[in-house]
Write a structure and sequence with these properties.
- There is one protein chain.
- The protein is about 35% helix and about 20% strand.
- By secondary structure, the protein is of the alpha/beta class.
- It has three domains: about 160 residues, P-loop containing nucleotide triphosphate hydrolases (Rossmann fold, 3-Layer(aba) Sandwich), CATH 3.40.50; about 80 residues, 3-Layer(aba) Sandwich (Rossmann fold), CATH 3.40.50.11420; about 130 residues, Rossmann fold (3-Layer(aba) Sandwich).
- Strands 2-3-1-4-5-6 form a six-stranded mixed sheet, with helices on both faces.
- Helix 12 packs parallel to helix 14.
- The two termini are about 30 Å apart.
- The C terminus is likely disordered.
Length: about 400
Amino acid sequence: MTNDSLHIGIFGRRNTGKSTLINWLTGQEVSIVSPLPGTTTDPVKKSVEIPGIGPVVLTDTAGIDDLGEIGSKRIQRSQEVISTVDCALLLIAGNQFGDYEMRLIGQFADKGVPYLILHNKNDVAKIAAITHTTIRQHSSAEIIDLHTCNASHREELINALKRIIPETALQVRSLIGDLVRPQEIVLMITPIDREAPAGRLILPQNQAIRDALDNNCITVVVKETELSAFLKLGITPSLAITDSQVFGEVARLLPEEIPLTSFSILLARQRGDFDACLRGTPYISRLQEGDHILILESCTHLPSCEDIGRVKIPKLLQNYTGLKLHFSFLSGLTALPADIHRIALVIQCGGCMITRKQLINRLRPFTDAGIPITNYGMALAYLNGIFERATGMLTNRPDGTTDRMHE
């Protein structure tokens, strides 16, 4: 499964049949099933292909009515899943619908997550009219009365899912499709350093190459050390894409008339809050002594002495500003700090390992609080003095606040 898979979260009280449901949908024993409440502790993910929908990541969560100190932590982990999913299934059973479910419904609304309400175990007790009426007082979501031993209910559920899946979750946005035409040459500059995985390219480079091929472009891939040799061939590409960490070197070598951007900036446009990053990047010049910078990495990896997020960007920022700045780092989808208002600037990686929904929700607390955000590519372009050049072809207004892809 790719990061473009549809993410579906399964939520509800303990012992409503969440684990049974995920096993039933996947046709596999993914989650442990037990009559004992609280069997599922941490969120469990399973990738599966659902006919008529496509690749899906199902996430089974702990009961929202878990007890004790450990139970509270499990509930918190379950609630954190909401901001990472495209849609949700809220399970109830035995006609239990109350505060627990209403809080979840509120959280779905806050995160813009569409959902279905499933009354499970209807072989034991069918949904009562009073339960249906109570739900309708708090939610307009579709309600399905089901039993996971009934094959026809699976088809009913899949059809209902198709109705609530956001169109944006099923659309794979092109990285460069609106920037180039078929048969045009796209030049990609890809450094191979200690950060590069052995024997292969990093994911953003792979994605860009595939996207160029999908758009019927002629793709040329070189290392930055061979860029001068390529340019001597007299071939003029319609677009050049580089790894952000060699922005400065590439910009010096590449003629100004050749449009230049980076893999990370294209990813920000494809799946992040591009407009907010455009507005937030120049805040680098307004940083003050002692400011706190938060760097968000979408994947987990062992940092090295050449790590772009943990080593190179902090060093460049300190040199550029001449200030003593404080840096903190979060990887994966780790919970954000409780007090975000002390943060002066957020720098997000390209986000190649997570979905657009996950990346947007990751950054939303900061944009809602008025905290400027940028991403690796935009920050490095700014620090190298080529911010306008690296983003200019991606915007269509003089103030650079809207890009073509978001029209």
